[in-house]
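retry 2 of 3: previous attempt timed out while embedding histidyl-adenosine monophosphate. Reduced batch size to 1 and resubmitted. Inputs unchanged:
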Amino acid sequence: MIEEGLEFSAIKGFRDVLPKEVGYWQFLEASARHLFSLFGFHEIKTPIIEKTELFSRSIGQETDIVSKEMYSLKDSKGRSLSLRPEATATVVRSYIQNRLYEKNPVQKLFSMGPMFRHERPQKGRLRQFHQINVELFGDAGPISDADLIILSMELFHVLGLENLTLNINTLGCPACRPHFKELLHRYLEDKAEALCSDCRRRAETNPLRVFDCKVPGCKEVMLDAPSILESVCEHCLRHFDSLQYYLKESNIPFVLNPHLVRGLDYYTRTTFEIQTTELGAQNAVAGGGRYDGLVEQLGGPSHPAIGFAVGMERVVALLGGLGPPNLDTPVFFIAALGEKAQERAFGWTQELRKEGISTQMDYTSRSLKAQLKQADRLGATQVLIVGENELESGKAILRDMASREQEEVALENMVENLRKVVFPDE
Ligand code: HAM
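retry 2 succeeded.
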């Protein structure tokens, strides 16, 4: 919500993730971590700021990300630094710098965190957004493509998100792509009038980018453009066929989309994107591909790699449509009435938490009605009620918030008694 007239509010395209939404983030992060460990991926954390050149050399000088969207600044020594617009370049830098390949020829890494792109903010598009980023180094074959793509689809499956389309394409390799670029360049030569000014430039510098343009005139021109699938070399085609075989064998439906070029220059061969119809124009929830030349290009050994990134805000938006996830709701709320009861409640609260049982209490000893209301708001499953009468009789009241049934629980050994309620089979 934007408060008019506030002296300080978050800057355009940057937003807070408020507690009511955080449960979805935790659900997404926990599901991803669990799944990634099943697939043998390990977490890596890289800085959010790097030398600008790392990004321009990897993502590509001609891309929108590098030419228009980076948050760059000069440090006190006059060096140009940039907030990371994506994670792949930083992970590759770390892979090279820390010689991660020496420990294991196949390195599987994932990371999560904020990225920064100075794009025009709109629904599903922010200037600070978060990605889950997954990279697999050291294998060039189609099985690792299939494994990684299956992992990306499985993530959405475990989250309960099913209505998604997997688009795949191949962009060829340094041996065959120049031929396709030339074909495309020739195709676009006499269509300059129908293209937007950006695409007129792209037609000269990087004609594949024209496939990415959203301007209707450019889209129409590209409908009849030559297909990369007819230009790639035999090796690339075999790789791509094999990937499709493994996806089919694993019952992963996909759409072959020869127009899928992606907005970053480092890709070779396989590219893919997972799309939804539920978020309007910003329909990509994840995207990635192979980048066999990047490690060497940045000064490392000649190691192939493939990866993808998931847009966390977009996934959270989809999760919101499914209703609240299994949040970590408090199990017990202790409604204490009067100072003495509060003292006992405070002790029980601390001890129950040490037992791993989520517990909250009211700090101010309000009326029972107010405390029950608070317990309800917090989603407590059980409320322990204790006042002067209970202290005298030696028994407190335990109320089940769903059924509204009540039972008595002895004050003596209270923590043990409550433990039995949570773990009856122990
Ligand atoms: P990307 O396609 O630029 O790829 O971004 C991946 C995902 O991040 C997108 O599909 C989208 O869900 C999300 N995303 C991108 N920009 C925004 C934005 N402005 N606001 C909200 N969400 C956004 C990459 O970044 C590559 N590094 C992926 C990769 C990893 N390729 C190989 N390894």
